């Protein structure tokens, strides 16, 4: 063990928490192992010696690695090794990145890479929560400049009680899945999914989580004092003040005019010649420095927008601080899809399409946690044309995956149970036009598409964001931020929910943190806006879910059979179930618990398959009518199969309403006929009657 090896211990949410430094990875800038229960996460951070040239941003990369050996699993892929990160790993990487990034110096351009690797995991101690703490410790004890530390905890809500870092049993019963990150003084990140939790309860959970965060941060500060390195000096990349001064003097009024419109296209048209004019004017004094001039123009736009908001309560598009852009909702746009909805807010427009499928279409998950599949899938696509750009489509990036997961979180709490609505559900949100808050538009569009598809949502869901501008102790919040207010502002506080409460939160900030006062104000503004969107727009397009699914969607019936009967329904080598599926043109999925899901486009075929499965799993009942197939002819009658493996005899006297001389005169092998069970003897032999079935059906038709 290295000479600088140290062990630190404390409690985290009531459990022993251990940190080891100097244990491994001595060539990194900072490294640690953290442990809680049997969950162990290693964090390593490195920084390049020199700044990256030609970039106008801080090049930070954060990666959360799920190693399947941590859960005692072998990868299911052909290669038998971990491939691209799972969706959960990508979301966790974003979860750690978002609170840490704002605390690095704005002027730093050195590449920094933070990697958190799950080495061991138990189901009761979430590695995602530990990864954030591990990453914070690794950077805090390193020589990399950073204004941390931070810490993060999970919070649940079980029977009205707030539980920090809940175990598996508590998570299963919790109405809240909240992650909070913070410094000792402020909250720096919030991510949540909830079962319509009120704003008051949510705020209480955030405050409770932050109280625990303060204790962890103090613990990390003690580690830094004993094991931390001296922070290195770096070469800051800043805009020359003389260059910015000239740009401001030359272009201030022109840029003000360019920005003062509610149309993004007009704004870009006005700004373009100003950029060219400024670059031409400064070309002689600042040759080959177009990128720095671009930064000056960006800085000038930021200055104008922030001054308007703070000093004049003026927004770029002329709206009031609590005013939402023009809204429009449509449903049923696409004739052959199962459900579609388009939601427009200003120049942000989202088209969402819902597809229903059998339960077997649920997504299989290959990860280290206890979840192995999900029934509801949400995909978010952000093509370059949505912002008027020309880029090739390279598939979803981290942003798309993160926004899709946020919309998914917002919708899941209001979905009907699998027992009540036995479908796998996929929604795809296509961003057609983007000028801020597309993820929240995706929530609205998806709720519309699901209701159009006939999914009986418990409550309709809407999403809205709240922005923030700060200066010292002053702050100003505004609802429904558009692109410029997001770029130049300090916060994007996204909230999805119903009339009854919150279902999802995602908060991104660019400052050192949020006070409780700011969070409470954001909650109240997004609550009012959410109700306005629901009642003033969405529910006017479709007031409630359609009573039936689309004629193009599979029709679904569910039944529960004894587990002991599963083998009979499947049959040797799957022969029985395959025969039912082929004859009825349906798909049948059987779970280990005896739940059977039967789906097909034609509801009559589905009902027929249902009756067959029911007959196999539950012995035929006397008085029941079945549609069966003639299998054999005898002189005394015909044998009829009413379900695979279930055969009965129709005596010649029961074959027709009139006297029958020969069986062949009425039926032949493979004929399908209706029969009624009239007797089941002590030996289980089934006696059937075609005559009684015909009479009963005729009587029902007459009464109808």
Work out the radius of gyration: 32 Å
Beta strand count: 29
- Unreliable runs: none
Question: Mean of residue pLDDT?
Answer: 93
Strand content: 25-35%
Q: Please estimate the helix content.
A: 25-40%
Largest sheet: 8 strands, antiparallel
* Number of H/I helices: 15
The CA-CA distance between the termini, in Å, is 87 Å
Q: Strands of the biggest beta sheet: in what spatial order?
A: 8-7-9-10-21-20-18-19
Broad structural category: alpha+beta
* Overall geometric form: elongated
Structural overview:
Strands 8-7-9-10-21-20-18-19 form an eight-stranded antiparallel β-sheet, sandwiched between helices. It has a six-stranded mixed β-sheet with strand order 1-2-3-4-6-5. Helix content is about 35%, strand content about 30%. The chain is of the alpha+beta class. The radius of gyration is 32 Å and the shape is elongated. The chain contains 15 helices and 29 strands. The longest helix has 29 residues, at about 200-225.
Characterize this entry briefly:
The chain is α+β, with helices and mostly antiparallel strands and 704 residues long. The radius of gyration is 32 Å and the shape is elongated.
Task: Outline the secondary-structure elements.
Layout: E1 6-12, E2 15-21, E3 30-36, E4 39-51, E5 60-66, H1 87-100, E6 110-120, H2 127-141, E7 151-158, E8 161-164, H3 168-173, E9 176-182, E10 187-197, H4 199-227, H5 241-259, H6 264-282, H7 290-312, E11 327-331, E12 339-345, E13 348-357, E14 363-364, E15 373-374, E16 376-381, H8 398-411, E17 424-433, H9 438-452, E18 462-471, E19 474-479, H10 483-488, E20 491-497, E21 502-509, H11 516-541, E22 555-560, H12 566-570, H13 575-584, E23 587-590, E24 595-600, H14 603-617, E25 625-634, E26 637-643, E27 646-651, E28 672-680, E29 686-689, H15 690-703
Parallel strand pairs: 5-6, 16-17, 27-29
Antiparallel strand pairs: 1-2, 2-3, 3-4, 4-6, 7-8, 7-9, 9-10, 10-21, 11-12, 12-13, 13-17, 14-15, 18-19, 18-20, 20-21, 22-24, 23-24, 25-26, 25-28, 26-27, 28-29
Helix pairs in contact: 1-2, 1-8, 2-4, 4-11, 5-6, 5-7, 6-7, 8-9
């Amino acid at each position: 063990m290295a000479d600088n090896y140290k062990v630190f211990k404390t409690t985290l949410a009531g459990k022993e928490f251990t940190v080891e430094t100097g244990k491994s990875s001595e060539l990194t800038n900072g490294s640690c192992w953290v442990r809680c229960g049997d969950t162990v996460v290693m964090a390593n951070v490195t920084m390049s010696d020199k700044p990256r040239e030609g970039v106008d941003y801080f090049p930070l990369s954060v990666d959360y690695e799920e190693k399947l050996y941590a859960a005692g699993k072998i990868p299911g892929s052909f290669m038998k090794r971990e491939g691209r990160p799972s969706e959960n790993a990508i979301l966790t990487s974003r979860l750690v990145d978002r609170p840490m990034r704002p605390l690095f110096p704005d002027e730093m351009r050195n590449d920094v890479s933070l990697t958190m690797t799950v080495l061991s995991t138990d189901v009761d101690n979430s590695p995602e929560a530990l990864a954030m703490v591990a990453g914070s410790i690794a950077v805090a004890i390193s020589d990399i400049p950073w204004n941390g530390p931070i810490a993060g905890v999970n919070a649940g809500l079980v029977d009205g009680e707030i539980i920090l870092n809940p175990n598996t049993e508590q998570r299963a019963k919790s109405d809240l899945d909240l992650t909070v990150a913070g410094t000792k003084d402020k909250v720096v990140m919030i991510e949540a999914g909830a079962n319509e939790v009120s704003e008051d309860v949510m705020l209480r959970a955030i405050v409770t989580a932050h109280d625990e965060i303060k204790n962890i941060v103090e613990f990390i500060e003690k580690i830094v004092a004993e094991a931390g390195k001296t922070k290195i000096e770096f070469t800051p990349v800043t805009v020359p003040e003389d260059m910015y001064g000239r740009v401001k003097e030359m272009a201030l009024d022109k840029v003000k005019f360019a920005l003062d419109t509610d149309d993004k296209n007009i704004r870009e048209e006005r700004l373009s010649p100003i950029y060219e004019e400024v670059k031409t004017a400064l070309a002689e004094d600042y040759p080959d420095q177009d990128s720095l001039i671009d930064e000056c123009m960006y800085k000038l736009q930021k200055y104008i927008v922030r001054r308007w908001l703070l000093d004049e309560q003026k927004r770029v598009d002329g709206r009031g601080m609590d005013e939402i852009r023009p809204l429009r909702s449509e449903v049923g746009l696409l004739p052959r899809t199962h459900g579609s909805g388009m939601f427009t807010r200003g120049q942000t427009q989202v088209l969402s399409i819902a597809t229903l499928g059998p339960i077997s279409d649920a997504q299989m998950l290959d990860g280290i946690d206890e979840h192995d599949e999900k029934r509801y899938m949400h995909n978010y696509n952000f093509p370059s044309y949505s912002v008027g750009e020309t880029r090739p489509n390279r598939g979803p990036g981290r942003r798309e995956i993160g926004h899709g997961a946020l919309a998914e979180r917002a919708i899941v709490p209001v979905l009907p149970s699998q027992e009540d609505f036995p479908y796998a559900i996929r929604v795809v949100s296509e961003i057609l036009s983007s000028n801020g808050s597309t993820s929240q538009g995706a929530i609205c569009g998806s709720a519309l598409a699901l209701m159009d598809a006939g999914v009986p949502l418990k409550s309709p869901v809407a999403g809205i964001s709240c922005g923030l501008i700060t200066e010292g102790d002053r702050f100003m919040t505004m609802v429904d931020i558009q692109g410029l207010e997001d770029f130049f502002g300090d916060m994007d506080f996204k909230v999805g929910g119903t009339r009854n409460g919150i279902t999802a939160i995602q908060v991104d900030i660019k400052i050192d943190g949020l006070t409780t006062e700011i969070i409470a104000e954001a909650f109240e503004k997004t609550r009012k806006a959410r109700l306005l969107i629901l009642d003033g727009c969405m529910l006017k397009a479709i007031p409630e879910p359609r009573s039936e699914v689309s004629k193009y969607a599979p029709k679904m019936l569910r039944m529960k059979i004894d587990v002991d009967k599963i083998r009979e329904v499947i049959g040797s080598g799957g022969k029985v179930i395959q025969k039912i599926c082929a004859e009825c043109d349906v798909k049948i999925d059987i779970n280990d618990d005896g739940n059977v899901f039967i789906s097909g486009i034609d509801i009559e075929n589905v009902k027929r398959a249902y009756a067959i499965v029911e007959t196999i799993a539950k012995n035929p009942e006397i008085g029941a009518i079945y549609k069966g197939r003639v299998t054999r002819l005898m002189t005394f009658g015909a044998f009829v199969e009413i379900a695979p493996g279930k055969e009965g005899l129709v005596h010649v006297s029961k074959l027709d309403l009139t006297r029958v001389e020969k069986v062949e005169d009425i039926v032949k092998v493979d004929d399908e006929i209706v029969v009624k069970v009239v007797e089941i003897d002590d030996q289980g032999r089934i006696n059937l009657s075609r005559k009684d079935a015909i009479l009963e059906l005729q009587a029902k038709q007459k009464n109808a």
